[in-house]
Amino acid sequence: MKKVCVIGLGYIGLPTATVLADNGYNVVGVDTNEAVVARINQGKSHISEFNLADKVAKAIAEDRLRAATLPEVADVFIIAVPTPFTAEKKADLSAVRSAAESLLPYLKKGNLVILESTVPPRTTVDLLVPILQKTGLEIGKELRLAFCPERVLPGRILEELIHNSRVVGGVDHASALAAKEVYASFVRGDIYLTDSTTAEMTKLMENTYRDVNIALANEFALIAEQSGVNVWEAIRFANNHPRVNIHQPGPGVGGHCIAVDPWFIVEQAGSLARLIRIAREINDGMPQYVVNRVQQLLSGVPSPRVAVLGMTYKADVADCRESPALEIIYLLRERGLTVAVHDPLAQDEHLLPLEEALAGADLLLLLVGHHDYRSLEPAKAAQLLRKPVVFDTRGVLERVTWERAGFLLATLGEFFPSKKELS
Q: Is 160 in the same domain as 287?
């Protein structure tokens, strides 16, 4: 198995193709976006990820990787296309279906097809198997088929592709073993074999666990505000217990995994997924809660202007997919507030330099705990803002320092100032 065809050159597909090329495979990456294909063939990466651009350039220069708009005959086919959800919170598997159908003219006896896209349980057997059977090849014998989800963190994708353990689920044992052979060529972590449906469920469970934990933290934060408790301190104390690991609260949950995957379980399990659904609703409701608090802080201020710091879905990454900051910005503007946005990493033509975003603002709203913001000087901000008011939704600003500079610092998960105190 020396030639690999990777379908989808996004956040998972391109790094995977690059790692495979780095480990002796001849790799062709396929994407429907001609601009992406052209950029990769120039030795450039369209994704902001640590060390990826250098790896792509090297693989292209050494003719171990190239990009195309159509699949080619290969030994292994890896499908790594997006699986978003619809407005009804249902999995949109159209890209997976199209990718599988695009392989039909190129598949031959002895090939291995691996699905890496996150999908609802039974997608491999209920969606892919019927499509691939159109080749006339017997699935599991003449054509191997497996599901192997990615388990990586943006900002550390290349490192985690190699060092993290993997779960490989085959439609039969022979398929699982064939897929394991591919991943064993570069994965240094453990590789666990199972069936495809269990592997699909495992991936969803991993992200759902985190989503439910964050929802618990967010609910604790809302309760703490009413109870006069500093939730950050309480969580820190609680996590000293050897069997407790409460996550951090925040303005919502973003990213293409945690904010999406739980809905795949809810879609399939229906009323059985009660806790999962409620957790999603809590986290999805946080942007609205933040906007309500902003309006409370700006009560009585004519034509208020808000300086938003952070647009990505998490700290120190450039990825804005499903970021709660995007919804908060939209809701603030929908309610008639003027919003200026800064982010040191996000790529958006509407972002402003930090000083310009802060200038004349009545409130500084911190939505992402980027390293740059943790070291922001209150004295510098005070010179630019019209009113010294800060709302920290990530609990990263040092209260004493900001209050000494004359700021009213409101923090998500702490007692919220009353209108009397604000005046």
A: no
The answer to whether 380 is a known catalytic residue is no
Is 148 part of the annotated catalytic residue set?
no
Last residue of one domain, picked from the residues 136, 160, 189: 189
* pLDDT digits 0-9 by tens, 296-322: 999 999 999 999 999 999 999 998 989
Containing structural domain, residue 154: 3-189
Looking at the predicted structure, is the pLDDT value of residue 417 above 80?
no
Tokens at 76, concatenated: 């292994």
User: Quick check: is 354 in a domain?
Assistant: yes
Pick the catalytic residue from 180, 203, 314, 387: 203
Distance CA 147, CA 27 (A): 19
- Among residues 5, 148, 180, 257, the one annotated as catalytic is 257
Strand partners, 113: 77, 145
Q: Does some domain include residue 228?
A: no
Contact 14, 52 (CB under 8 A): yes
Same domain, 184 and 286: no
Count of domains for the chain: 2
CA distance 115 to 93: 12
Residue 113 has phi, psi (to 5 degrees) of -115, 130
pLDDT in the model for residue 338: 97
Q: What angle do CA 14, 8, 86 make, to 5 degrees?
A: 125
pTM: 0.91
